[in-house]
Amino acid sequence: MLIGKVVKCCSVAAVLAISGPSAFADQAPNLQGQKITAAFFGGSLQKMIEEAWMTPFEKATGAKVSIDSPNPRAKLKAQVESGNTVWDIYTEDASFVQQNCGVLFEKVDTSKFVAAGIDKRFITNDCGVSTVVVAEVFAYNEDKYKNAPPKSWADFFDLKKFPGKRAIFNNPMTGILEMALLADGVPVDKLYPLDLDRAFKKLDTIKDKITWTQSPGGLTDALVNNQVDLALAFSGRVAAAAKAGAKVEVVRNQQLLSWDQWALVKGSKNKAAGIAFLNFVAQPKQQASMTELTSYATANTDGHPKVDPLSAHFLPVRESAVFVNQDWWAKNFDTVNQRFVAWQSQ
After folding, report:
1. Domain count, the chain
2. Overall average pLDDT of the 23-44 stretch
3. Mean pLDDT computed over 302-311
4. Is residue 265 one of the residues assigned to a domain?
5. Do 120 and 140 share a structural domain?
6. pLDDT of residue 41
7. For this UniProt entry, which residues form the secretion signal (predicted)?
8. What is the separation, in whole angstroms, between the first and last Cα of the chain?
């Protein structure tokens, strides 16, 4: 799960824009009387999920959707292994879905997601539909550095030009390793497999300048309260800081893109309705709705969200972005996480 907590950043007009008809509604299956349970991590994002996806899906199909939160991985595994699945659809970061495709999740026809407009680069397995796209970006105090702003990840490590504290969310999948290697001169096409020795050696150079936040929301707080001058932060969190009055800007080159996915739980007793839901959230209108509500990006290239200028300014820049390799992370997360924790304690 990439964004357990998200600040609502849209205008009233943007919220109202999500309630109209969609192409899916014209060809929606009749699921009257059917019910599905969506396993979700909870938090403030839940209301947005209901508004953008759950309620419109119910209106379009006649099905009923209930949300069960939180959605711990251990509970998912226990349900599948026991053959007593209560959940039907589940959301997590794409690397977890990829790691467990065919094991904890059912394989589905992902060509329908592509046909709906989902960018093929976000189709990284045969189980999940990509939804919220998050950019990990280099954010900085615009007032402090307005005369000579940072331009690349290398500047994040330049303590002479850019002294001061750097905020980073305490998780190895925030792009911290990719950032370090890009800053150290590794070309994008040579980024994976990640050279862990090289990445941690580079991080050693700024280790005592890092302010670790224990939640994504802590990044917003650190920027708003001027606790740091620089941050490796989720794009939506930077947008939230700007809306709260912080003078922040982002480096637009080589933003690191990650994404969440929804998938059908292995052994679901409501497969038809679950698959219909996945196809529904792949649609341009539903994808755009989440952008309007969260200031995170859509995986659908045909989605055209209506957002205010400030939110639009902080949306990910896909053209020059670096796509996080979900396959590599699916295979290596446990090892990397152990190494990350050990490095922090040294």
Report:
1. 2
2. 83
3. 92
4. yes
5. no
6. 87
7. 1-25
8. 27
Which pLDDT tens digit goes with each residue over 218-260?
999 999 999 999 999 999 899 999 999 999 999 999 999 999 9
Helix axes 196-204, 176-183, angle to 10 degrees: 80
- Give me Rg for the CA atoms of the chain: 20
> How high is the pLDDT of residue 11?
33
With a cut of 70, say whether residue 194 has pLDDT above it: yes
Instruction: Assess whether pLDDT exceeds 80 at residue 28.
Output: no
Does residue 106 surpass a pLDDT of 70? Answer: yes
Give the residue, 270 or 11, on which the prediction is more confident: 270
Domain of residue 305: give its range.
Answer: 12-133+258-313
Same domain, 248 and 283: no
